[in-house]
Design a protein that fits this description.
This protein is α/β, with parallel strands linked by helices. Helix content is 39%, strand content 17%. The protein contains 26 helices and 24 strands.
C-alpha cells in the first residue's frame, strides 16, 4: 500500500522557549512508525531542530510530494503553522493538511479556523490516523468513521467523528523508529552520557492541577508492560549505542508496583545505562526504598513537580503536595547521590511576594541542582484559563499565537491583586536569588561531561534571553514585509537619530567607509541600501539609494539590475546590505560591470566570530546560518536575509568567489565593534549603556582589538576591481 504521509514538527517564532533541551518529536515518530509498520508510507521533517522557516519547509514538501501533511501544533507555534499551511495551499490545494496535539484536542473547530487546516485529530493518534490512511487507500472520504477527527467537508460544514477512546493496551504500538528523524545524534536533551534516547512507560496523569493541559490523554493512566519497556531499551542500546535513557512520563512513579517491576528488570538484565527522571515525579508513591532501587538500576537524576512553597497557592491550583514529605524525600535522594531539580511556577492565583520568597528558600533548602522557575501559562481548556477569563485579564490575545514562552520573563495575565510589573519582578527575583554565584559555581563543578556542559550553557542562555526580553523589551520582527516598507524605513531613521549611542556608532562606521575610499580618483560614489541612515553627513558627494524611494534618498533601484553604464562607478558603499541580497552571483556581476578599473566595493556586514555568532543566532531576528549556500528564498525586500552570508562568500568560499570574479580582488577583511552596537541597543532594543560612556567603550574596544577575530561583531570588507579591466 502507498499513501504518502509527511509529518512535520513545526518551528516557532516565540521567545522564551528552552531551546537547550531538544528531544525528537516522539509523538510524530510513534505515528509514522505505526503507519510504516502497517504498510503505508510515512516520513518526518523536524523543522524545529533545523530551525527552518515555513518557506524552507515548503521546499521539503515540494520534494516529498505528500498526499497528507500532519502537524503537531502547540499554542506557541500557531503563526508558524498558519504560514506553512498558506504556502502549501498555494503550492497544491489537493494536499490534505491535519493538526494534532493540545490545540487540536482542546478546541478542534477553532484550530481549523485559525490555521486553515483540513482536519484536527483529538487524543492519541496512532490508530485513528491508521483509519484515515485506510480511507484514502480505499478512495473513501478521508475522514469517514475516523475516531477523534473534526474535518471540513465539501459543503463548508464540519464532520465530527466518534470519540477517540484511549488506547488501553499501549504495548500494541510499535517502538518508535528514530531513523525517521535521522537518528538521535542531532538532538540535545540534558544528558550526562550521549547519545541518549527518550521513552515513555506510561501515558496520562491521574491528577487535576488547574494549570495543566491534559487534553490529549485526559486523566486515565495507561501502562506499558515492564517487559515491553525493557525490550525497547535493549533495542535502543543495540541499534543506536545509547548510554542514557530519559523517561518522559508525566509521573513515572504514579503506580509504585509498575515502577518497581521496571526497576527489577533493569537490574536483572544488567542494562548498564544511566536514567534521568526529568519530567517531575509526584510524592504519593515515592519512598526511600524505591529511591534506593532507582540508584541501583542506574537512575542518577530526578525532578520534582513542586510549583510553590505556599500551601494556599497549592490548594488553589489543586496541587496536593506534602511539603514536609517533600523535604525528607528530596534530601534523602540528594544524600544517596541523585542530582535533583524542581519545577516552580511564578504568578499563580493567591501568590504573594512572600510566597515567592518561601519558594526560593525551599529550593535552597532542598539543595536542588536546578530550579526551573516558569511563568504561569493559561492554556485554553485549563481551569487556570477559565479563572483568568472570569477574574482577571489576559496580557496577550489568547485566540492567537502565544508569542512568548514561560522562560520569557513576561506575564501572560494580570489579576485584580497582581499586575504585570509585580509578576515580572517576582520572576526576576526568583532567578537572581536562587542562581547566586555560589549556586552557579556548584552547578558548574557538578558537571561531569561535555554533553552536560553544552546543555548547561544552552539552558542558561534560554533564561538569559527571557531576562533580556523582559528587561530591554527585545522584539522580534517576524513579518517586517507585512508592514508598509516606507514606514519601516522611517521608523529606522527615527531610531538611529533619537538614540545618541547608536547614532555615534553609525557615524564611526561611515567614517570607516570614508577612510576606505580615500585615494580614489574622482568619480561617482553610490551607497546601496541606504535605508534610514545618514551617509551624506559624512560623505556629501555620495549618491544614496534603496529599493524604495524615500525622502532624502537620491535613487530608487534594484541591486540585481543596476541602472549604471559599464565602468562608470568609482565606489559602491554598503552598510548591513549584502546579507539581504538573495542572489550574490548576480549582484557581484552587476557591481563588477558598473565598477571602473581601480574602483572599490566597501561594506560593513555582520561578522562570524565566536561572540558574534552567539549574539546573532540567539538574539537577532534575522537568520544566521553558516552552513547555507549563497542563495536563499525571499518573501520580500526586508525580512529575508542570512547574516552569515558575507563570511560564507568572502571566507568560507573565498576561492570560489575569486574564481567566479577574477577581476575582483579582496583587499581587506577587518573585524571590529565587539561591544558598542550591542550597548546601543541597535534597532530593536532599548539603549543599554548611557550615552556619556561611548568614548570609554571606544577605548576599551581599541584595547581588546587584538582579539577582534574572536570577538568582533562586524566585518569591514574592501574589494577592488583590477585597474586594467576597463
Amino acid at each position: 500500500m502507498d499513501c504518502k504521509f509527511l509529518f512535520i514538527e513545526p518551528g516557532s517564532y516565540s521567545l522564551g522557549l528552552n531551546k537547550a533541551t531538544l528531544f525528537p518529536p516522539l509523538g510524530l515518530v510513534y505515528l509514522a512508525t505505526n503507519l510504516n509498520d502497517r504498510g503505508f508510507s510515512a516520513q518526518i521533517y523536524d523543522a524545529s531542530i533545523k530551525r527552518s522557516t515555513p518557506q524552507e519547509t515548503l521546499a521539503i514538501v515540494k520534494q516529498k510530494k505528500p498526499e497528507v501533511i500532519g502537524l503537531r501544533m502547540y499554542y506557541c507555534n500557531i503563526d508558524w503553522v498558519k504560514e506553512l499551511i498558506k504556502l502549501v495551499r498555494n503550492l497544491d490545494s489537493g494536499i490534505i493538511v491535519g493538526i494534532g496535539g493540545p490545540c487540536a484536542s482542546t478546541e478542534p473547530k477553532a484550530t481549523i479556523n485559525k490555521t486553515g487546516a483540513d482536519f484536527c485529530m483529538a487524543g492519541e493518534g496512532e490508530f485513528a490516523i491508521l483509519e484515515l490512511a485506510k480511507n484514502i487507500y480505499a478512495l473513501r472520504p478521508y475522514y469517514e468513521d475516523v475516531p477523534g477527527i473534526m474535518a471540513r467537508t465539501n459543503n463548508n460544514g464540519y464532520y465530527s467523528g466518534s470519540p477517540n477512546n484511549r488506547i488501553k493496551d499501549i504495548d500494541r504500538i510499535p517502538f518508535p523508529d528514530y531513523d525517521l528523524v535521522g537518528g538521535l545524534d542531532p538532538y540535545s536533551p540534558r544528558t550526562r552520557y550521549s547519545p541518549a534516547a527518550p521513552i515513555i512507560t506510561t501515558r496520562g496523569c491521574a491528577f487535576k492541577c488547574s494549570f495543566c493541559a491534559r487534553h490529549v490523554f485526559g486523566n486515565l493512566v495507561t501502562y506499558r508492560s515492564a517487559e515491553n519497556v525493557i525490550q525497547e531499551i535493549v533495542l535502543l542500546k543495540q541499534k543506536y549505542g545509547i548510554r542514557q535513557i530519559d523517561i518522559l512520563d508525566d509521573n513515572f512513579t504514579v503506580d509504585r508496583n509498575h515502577a518497581q517491576r521496571i526497576l527489577d528488570l533493569i537490574i536483572k538484565e544488567k542494562i548498564g545505562l544511566s536514567f534521568d527522571l526529568r519530567s517531575g515525579v509526584r510524592l504519593e508513591s515515592l519512598d526511600n526504598e524505591l529511591l534506593i532501587k532507582m540508584r541501583k538500576a542506574g537512575f542518577y537524576k530526578i525532578a520534582f513537580g513542586i510549583e510553590s512553597a505556599d500551601k494556599r497557592v497549592l490548594e488553589l491550583c489543586n496541587k496536593r503536595l506534602d511539603l514536609d514529605k517533600l523535604r525528607k524525600t528530596a534530601l534523602f535522594a540528594k544524600d544517596i547521590g541523585f542530582k535533583t531539580s524542581g519545577f516552580f511556577i511564578i504568578g499563580l492565583p493567591g501568590e504573594t511576594f512572600q510566597s515567592v520568597r518561601k519558594t526560593v528558600g525551599l529550593a535552597h533548602e532542598l539543595k536542588l541542582d536546578v530550579a526551573n522557575f516558569c511563568m504561569a501559562t493559561p492554556y485554553p481548556g485549563t481551569e487556570l484559563f477559565d479563572y483568568v477569563k472570569k477574574h482577571g485579564r489576559f496580557l496577550f490575545d489568547p485566540e492567537k499565537n502565544y508569542d512568548f514562552g514561560f522562560y520569557a520573563g513576561k506575564p501572560f495575565y494580570a489579576l485584580p491583586d497582581l499586575d504585570e510589573k509585580e509578576v515580572s519582578r517576582r520572576f526576576s527575583f526568583a532567578y537572581r536569588n536562587f542562581y547566586n554565584i555560589f549556586q552557579i559555581l556548584t552547578d558548574l563543578f557538578s558537571i561531569r561531561t561535555v554533553a552536560e556542559l553544552k546543555w548547561f550553557a544552552g539552558a542558561a542562555l534560554s533564561v538569559l534571553k527571557g531576562q533580556l526580553y523582559n528587561l530591554f523589551k527585545l522584539t522580534q520582527v517576524k513579518h517586517i514585509d507585512n508592514i508598509n516598507t516606507l514606514e519601516t524605513f522611517e521608523l529606522h531613521r527615527r531610531i538611529i537619530r533619537q538614540k545618541p549611542f547608536l547614532k555615534k556608532v553609525y557615524r564611526d562606521w561611515y567614517k570607516m567607509l570614508k577612510d576606505s575610499i580615500n585615494g580614489l580618483s574622482r568619480g561617482t560614489i553610490i551607497e546601496l541600501g541606504s535605508g534610514g541612515g545618514f551617509l551624506k553627513e559624512v560623505i556629501p558627494q555620495a549618491y544614496t539609494s534603496d529599493i524604495v524611494l524615500m525622502p532624502g534618498l537620491d535613487l530608487n533601484l534594484s541591486a540585481l539590475d543596476l541602472p549604471f553604464k559599464n565602468n562608470s562607478i568609482s565606489a559602491f558603499l554598503m552598510l548591513d546590505t549584502m546579507h539581504h541580497i538573495n542572489k550574490p552571483v548576480v549582484f557581484f556581476k552587476e557591481l563588477s560591470r558598473c565598477l571602473r578599473g581601480g574602483g572599490r566595493i566597501i561594506m560593513i556586514e555582520p561578522a562570524n566570530t565566536l561572540w558574534s555568532r552567539f549574539i546573532f543566532v540567539n538574539f537577532h531576528q534575522e537568520d544566521f546560518d553558516v552552513s547555507a549556500g549563497w542563495e536563499f528564498e525571499t518573501s520580500g525586500p526586508l525580512s529575508s536575509a542570512n547574516g552569515a552570508l558575507p563570511w560564507i562568500v568572502f571566507s568560507r568560499d573565498r576561492d570560489i568567489f575569486l574564481k567566479e570574479f577574477p577581476q575582483l580582488k579582496i583587499k581587506r577583511l577587518r573585524y571590529h565593534t565587539p561591544l558598542r552596537y550591542i550597548l546601543s541597543g541597535g534597532l530593536s532594543m532599548r539603549q543599554i549603556a548611557p550615552s556619556f560612556t561611548y568614548g570609554f567603550f571606544g577605548v576599551l574596544e581599541f584595547l581588546i582589538s587584538p582579539l577582534n577575530k574572536y570577538l568582533g561583531m562586524f566585518l569591514l570588507v574592501e574589494i577592488e576591481k583590477c585597474a586594467n579591466t576597463d
